[in-house]
Design brief:
Shape: globular
Number of helices: 1
Order of helices and strands: EEEEEEEEHEE
Radius of gyration: 15 Å
Helix content: 10-25%
Distance between the termini: 11 Å
Number of strands: 10
Largest sheet: 6 strands, antiparallel
């Protein structure tokens, strides 16, 4: 049985208005830069280290940044959304605004095309 992937779906919400106090591994952050839109996936590097990997564009698959220990949420298995909003320009992307970042907390999901 062949599986045809027609599109990749995600449920996006603005980083600045999300009700979640943290995001965990597999979450995708989408932001505009110049004439393009980029996606970063939160990855876990045990023990309790977090990084962001590019998943779109010609740099897909490259680790963009290893986040500092203080990005880790103190009570949950992920990084703090408050920390991410506050430190977006310092740690993630200098030329984009945290107000323009969207989060897919559950990452991507493949959508099967009808045959």
């Amino acid at each position: 049985m062949a599986l045809y992937i027609d599109e990749v779906a995600a449920s996006w919400e603005p980083l600045c208005t999300t009700g979640e106090s943290y995001v965990c591994r597999g979450a995708v952050l989408r932001y505009p830069s110049n004439a393009a839109v980029f996606d970063l996936m939160l990855i876990e590097q045990p023990p309790r280290r977090w990084g962001l990997m590019r998943v779109t564009g010609y740099k897909a698959g490259i680790l963009a940044v290893v986040l500092p220990i203080d990005a880790h949420h103190p009570e949950e298995p992920g990084i703090s959304t408050a920390w991410l909003r506050q430190h977006w320009n310092q740690w993630v992307h200098l030329d984009s605004r945290p107000e323009d970042v969207f989060v897919a907390a559950e990452g991507y999901r493949a959508v099967r095309r009808a045959q």
